[in-house]
Amino acid sequence: MCWFAFNKAHYEISPATIVELEQQIDVSPLEDNMGRRFSSDTEFKDFLAQHYPADELRLNVGHIIESAISINPLMVLIGILGFIAAFHISLGPIMWVLFSEIFPNSLRSAAVPFFALITSISSYLVQQFFPWQLARFGAADTFMMYAGIGLIGLLFTHRLLPETKGKSIEQLEHLLSSQPVIRRSKLDSHSAPIG
To answer: Which helix (H) or strand (E) holds 143?
Structure first.
């Protein structure tokens, strides 16, 4: 939904844009391009970078984009809240239960903290690179990349993650340690994956 909303958004320098921004920045470059329309945020940011010094633009780019954008904000809000809700009723809490179930008893005390560290590092990297991705690829393409990564994760989980419902930890340990990863999902094909 976020990809669709940002993909359909456009940025236009209108008289309302000029009025809204004239107290904050020099609007003469915008006035010279009155009525000009941009189809993506990266195209609009490139235009702004040609007309404003980097320091001034860094402080005001949010205000300029907010005043020039035409987007369906409800679609973006529903997309983001839908993602958060879906994560918190599926992979978010289940991941911690799954970690305690899929590792053999002999490795569990080391494996769970190690994978907790991996998820923390992954979260940190997403937070650090998200602004760079927005600046480099634009909002629409950034959200599409995350949707693609989510789809790959869903397919990977569906294909390789065994069902743990109704099985004891001992049964899971035997199942996971006795079968190669690819064969495991075929042996238990009548069960659906977690999530």
So the answer is: helix 139-160
Residue type present at position 111: A
> Is 72 buried (19+), middle (13-18) or exposed (0-12) by CB count in 10 A?
middle
**Do 102 and 193 touch, CB atoms closer than 8 A?**
no
Query: Can you tell me the distance from the alpha carbon of 155 to that of 148, in angstroms, rounded to the nearest whole number?
Result: 11
Architecture of domain 90-187: Up-down Bundle (1.20)
The pLDDT of residue 68 is 92
Domain range list for the chain:
2-70, 90-187
Taking alpha carbons only, the member of 109, 112, 115, 119 closest to residue 87 is: 119
Listing from the earlier edge strand, what are the strands of the sheet with 69-70?
Answer: 37-38, 10-12, 69-70
When pLDDT is cut at 50, 70 and 90, the band that residue 151 belongs to is very high
pTM to 2 decimal places: 0.74
Cβ(162)–Cβ(184) below 8 Å: yes
